[in-house]
Structure formats: structure tokens, C-alpha cells
Specification:
With 143 residues, this protein is mostly helical. The chain is 94% helix and 0% strand. Helix 2 runs antiparallel to helix 3.
């Protein structure tokens, strides 16, 4: 074998090794790339599923908090309206109670007015109870 043939043989062996090495690297890299991208997309899907569950729970909690806020605000508005009732409303209720007492006594004089008498007395008791509720509110405001 001549020196040129020996050099050619060495070159062929090196080129064959280089081609195999390049093919191996591209094949493994391609396989790694495909596996990496599949694993990455699967990981993102798992994370988004976990996050979507968390987001759904947080949204539900926010909705419940908003509903509670609405209920409390409605209660606050009603309480504010009730607190605006003061001494004039209490006096008016006391006058109504007195008129209902007079009406009950009038109905008691009639034989057929027993039902009206009971209703008048019940309404009088309710008016007095409401007036009693308004009285401590005025005392608290004065303090």
C-alpha cells in the first residue's frame, strides 16, 4: 500500500467517524428536542390545570365575599335608615298607640266589635314595641 492510499484510508476512517458522530448528535438531539418539547408542553398543561383549579377556587371565594359584602351593605343601609328615625318617629308611634287604645275601648263598647278590639290592641302593642326600640337609640346618640 502506498502512502497516498494510507492517507486516503485514514481520511475515509476519519470522515466515516465524523459522519457517524454528526448523525448520532443530530439524531439524539432531535430525539431530545422532541422529548423535551413534549415534556415541556405536558408540564405546562399540568401547571395550568393546577392554576386553573386554584383560579376557580379563588373566583368562587371572591364571589362569596362579594355576595356577603352586598348583604352587609344592604343591612347597613337598612340600619342607617332605621337610625334616622328619631324622637319625632317615636312620638308619632306613641300617638298612634294612644289612638289605637281609644279605638279598642270604643270597639269594646259594641257587642260585635270584639275582633276589632283585639286587632286594635295588638296593633297598639306593636306600635309601643317599636317606640320602645327607638327610645334607647336616642339615648345612645346622646351619649
Amino acid at each position: 500500500m502506498t502512502t497516498v492510499q494510507i492517507y486516503a484510508l485514514i481520511a475515509i476512517v476519519f470522515l466515516t467517524g465524523a459522519i457517524y458522530w454528526i448523525a448520532f448528535r443530530c439524531g439524539v438531539s432531535n430525539g431530545r428536542t422532541v422529548g423535551y418539547s413534549e415534556g415541556f408542553s405536558e408540564g405546562i398543561a399540568v401547571q395550568s390545570a393546577d392554576k386553573s383549579e386554584e383560579i376557580r377556587n379563588l373566583t368562587l371565594s371572591l364571589k362569596q365575599a362579594h355576595d356577603q359584602h352586598e348583604q352587609l351593605y344592604d343591612f347597613y343601609k337598612r340600619a342607617l335608615e332605621a337610625s334616622k328615625l328619631g324622637e319625632p318617629a317615636r312620638i308619632t308611634l306613641m300617638e298612634i298607640a294612644e289612638k289605637l287604645r281609644i279605638a279598642a275601648e270604643t270597639f269594646a263598647a259594641f257587642r260585635t266589635g270584639k275582633k276589632l278590639e283585639r286587632e286594635s290592641l295588638a296593633l297598639r302593642d306593636q306600635a309601643l314595641a317599636i317606640a320602645a326600640l327607638l327610645e334607647p337609640a336616642d339615648q345612645e346618640n346622646a351619649a
